[in-house]
From TrEMBL:
NCBIfam families: ahpD_dom, peroxid_rel. This is Peroxidase-related enzyme. One of its GO terms (molecular function) is peroxiredoxin activity. It comes from the Bacteria.
Amino acid sequence: MSRINIVTTATATSEQQELLMAIQAKLGMVPNFLKVFANSPSALRAFLGLHSIAGEGSLDAQTRERIALAVAQKNSCEYCVSAHTAIGRGTGLDYAEMEANRNGTSNNTKAAVIVRFAQSLVEHQGEVTTSELVEMRDAGYSESDIVEVITHVGMTLLTTILGKAARLEIDFPKVSL
């Protein structure tokens, strides 16, 4: 049982209803974390807007999910690990790769750099070293890519904090920490 109200179509205001219906149309479902976000239509719109814009960047879907899995594991959010395992599978990531991502690495050398960087951002609250930034650049990541990684880490931190504060019921196939 969630510790923060989950907005349903039966309890939603007209503004919340409109947002939930748009999410349902796009995803085919409304995940519980978005139902909690819906308590504040402004917060939900802000999250959806940032998520949409960030998805238009240079990082591909697999890279974004690698980052999300690394951050969700580092921040101990079982809801987010479960959600991003399901989403990661949909991008073509296999279980071995997703397990590696959760452990702060990757089976792909270039992707391992970005996953380590993402986990370092969380572990050190943004205080990454110059050598970590150099490693990102040496691996071929641009300044834009680095900023996008930071953005995706921030978005995942937001959802892990929400998920943990609410103690959300997992509405994806459950993956244990």
